[in-house]
Amino acid sequence: xxxxxxAVADTFNDYMRDLCRNAEKAFLPFSLGGQxxxxxxxxxxxxxxxxxxxxxxxxxxxxxxxxxxRRKKLCKLLQVNKAMREIHDKCHFVVWWDSSSQNLRCAxxxxxxxxxxxxxxxxxxxxxxxxENRRMLAETYGYEFIxxxxxxxxxxxxxxxxxAWLMRDASGSSYETVELMARGLIGCTAVRFESVxxxxxxxxxxxxxxxxxxxxxxxREI
Length: 222
Hints:
Strand content: 15-25%
Mean pLDDT: 90
Distance between the termini: 34 Å
Low-confidence stretches: 211-222
Helix content: 25-40%
Radius of gyration: 17 Å
Number of helices: 7
Largest sheet: 7 strands, mixed
Number of domains: 1
């Protein structure tokens, strides 16, 4: 069976967009493209805070994270850095399709991946298996995303701090932020941002930029 990670991402993002729109909350999913090597597949935002999401086709694909040297280093660093671990648990998640129930499930990346069953032979990792009580349905994540606590994203300042640490210390990147692109407000235009801060300022300052429910006769979709 082919891995359909993008289909899982599309399903999750469509659900989150609908959920947030119905709650009159913001939601933007930013695909990170090749930048996922140093961070994750997507960055999502509610125009106030941010989260990183790694997508997997199914539970069988989760173990493939054990092949990534950068993720092994991340797990090792998270184990000894309490400050980054606390931010991580709020804003860095893995989402996968549960093939038995067909539900999407998610968990903090650390509690699902940073263990010896994923990184075989890594005795420095304290956890031997995923922490199952940290798993949740995607519906639960979405509800808590729009109704914290618990927080399912990090506020801008702490997110930028975590992202810089993730890219610099855990991934060895020379960058401390990511480039983003979003649909503009008119037609099929796209706006590019050189950093998370630039995207945040655009979301906060663009006239008419909001995510409230469209009027009944409107076909405009943001």
